[in-house]
Write a structure and sequence with these properties.
Radius of gyration: 19 Å
Number of helices: 9
Strand content: 5-15%
Order of helices and strands: EHEHEHEHEHHHHH
Distance between the termini: 42 Å
Number of strands: 5
Amino acid sequence: MYDVNTRSKRIAVVDDHALVLAGLTQLIGTIDSNFTTVAFQDGFSLLQNIEEGISFDLIITDLGMEKMNGLMLVEVLRGKGLSTPVIIVSGVDNALSDSETFSAGANRFVHKGDDFEELSQAIHELMGLRPARKAPAPAPAMHINLAPRQIEIVRLVSTGASNKDISAELEISENTVKTHLKKIFQTLEVNNRVECVQKASALGFVNIH
């Protein structure tokens, strides 16, 4: 097995917004000439590369992506027994606390609006190139799962669709829509549609940006 200290450090960057992906990849490349960045527009492409035997020293993934959100990607990676450090990034304010990030299996959360030094610091720490900051004790594991149909409904709600609109779009009754929404509200621990969309966006189930 190769020694990561004698070769270029390979960093995977995952984001489904092409411009953001290109900019983030370019910026990370300026941190250290020993870093090689590989861009992916979805988690499935990254996982395919890993299945083909390509290894990464660090993974940086957006939280809210359409095909596979950041939390789901981390869950799949950990389910495969991979301990590769993961940084989750998002433009949503207060999307994840440090303890929630650790509980999800990731190593760090960085807001896209933070100074670039924050991301640079996190990368160097997780690469073992700088002393790590003392991390807060992880909170009890919090796993929030929505069924595919529930995610479809939340995405429609995020567009402003009414129960009648959702019923027509998904070809189900309005009573069924109401039943799904009631269960979604209970799962997300919210009281109305606005809170539902905000919470779902913060957890990466929908992308409202």
